[in-house]
């Protein structure tokens, strides 16, 4: 089934329901949303785009993002959403690797992209939209099989060239239905707010909200502005939104500085990086029980585990802190395993690689058989994340397998050390990495944003974790290097250490 069938069904039953908003202004109901998606498909057909072709979206958040995305699917093509914050060379690599036939781009980005790639680049401005609106309308989405490519998602590429994850129509369908079962249950009274890039975790939730007839709100700023989010939440009410952990921290800080209560925010799903306990405790104290954590990756998008709003807010369970430090339990459409180096299951409480199996798992990487064979072994996706399951099925992540530090033969998981250091009030951010050591193999180094004294951080570590896990060096930065999705670039931190240690 073509996932875009959900828009056609909603438009058929409720065409007058408000659908797309720019800020507080409604720009399309579901009938108009469906009609424009059909005309986009007709226009694409006139450009020679058909079933299986790849069409890229390099756009800032805007309502037309959704009409173009669904229009691509109506045409039977596959979408290649690309983060608009990427460098032109990075965009060119993705478009070339994907074999994109056509690219829709925000006008401000058009020149650089057109110069860097051979595919047809079309800036989304009023003239193009007027041309599209004069195209013949495709009446319904093109038939697609469940295993057909719908969304070609490129990994963030923190350790090298990004890989294209093949996301099928079946994956999107199962992921969306699992969201309604395990994460949150949206309905037509809700509004979904797109403050994070729609090319990533925020946009991939659009399909279920279309099926439910919810409102889709793009901030007029096109991005993340806490004051604007609070104002839109008060206006629209029943807001659901996706946020990276750094965005949750910023919302909390601004709310406390300005006296905001978060009125109108119903659900905030956080994912995409480690959420430290100090940050989520502050957020719940400020906004209440509105937070749900999701763990997934492009290879199994947003569908591995979920930590419910009850678990995030509960303080009555005897192990509530351990649960809050977890990423929750397996979502309904997948099986989890903690495996050893050979993939054999490990007992509860033992750290190993997180492995996942189920319909939301990718069939492989685009034109990358070696990468696919490495990630998909024995019927399981090997995530590259290290974690442990408790007796109740709660998964606690420790780190990426490549980030684990081995010092003197002992495994050290950076996140455990980072959690301790972040509990100091004078530490805003921290990232822990390993540095080669001639005697111990590696030693622990902490990059710290904040002015907490070294001695105080040492004492904090000695009080809470084993002595061998304590950082041997604290290096101060004004901010941690991050990619365009807000993930800390530990590869860059290691490169800085290597440069400092070079003779």
Broad structural category? alpha/beta
Tell me, what's the shape?
Answer: globular
* Subunit organisation of the chains: single chain
Spans where pLDDT lies below 50 across 5 or more residues: none
Using only CA atoms, what is the Rg? 23 Å
Q: Just give the CATH class of the domain at 404-501.
A: Alpha Beta
Q: What percent of residues adopt helix (DSSP H or I)?
A: 25-40%
**CATH architecture label name of the domain at 404-501:** 2-Layer Sandwich
**CATH-assigned fold name of the domain at 404-501:** GMP Synthetase, Chain A, domain 3
Count of alpha/pi helices: 17
- Relevant CATH superfamily of the domain at 404-501: ANL, C-terminal domain
Amino- and carboxy-terminal Cα gap: 60 Å
Calculate the mean pLDDT score and round it: 92
Spatial strand sequence of the major β-sheet: 2-1-10-9-11-12-13-14-15
Percentage of residues in strands: 25-35%
Number of strands: 25
> Largest sheet, described in full?
9 strands, mixed
Report on the architecture of this protein:
With 503 residues, this protein is an alpha/beta fold. A hairpin with a 3-residue loop joins β23 (427-437) and β24 (441-450). The longest helix is centred in the first third of the chain and has 17 residues, at 30-46. The N and C termini lie far apart (60 Å). 49% of the residues are buried. The model has no long low-confidence stretch (mean pLDDT 92).
Question: Which key features would you list for this structure?
Answer:
503 residues, alpha/beta, GMP Synthetase, Chain A, domain 3, five-stranded antiparallel sheet
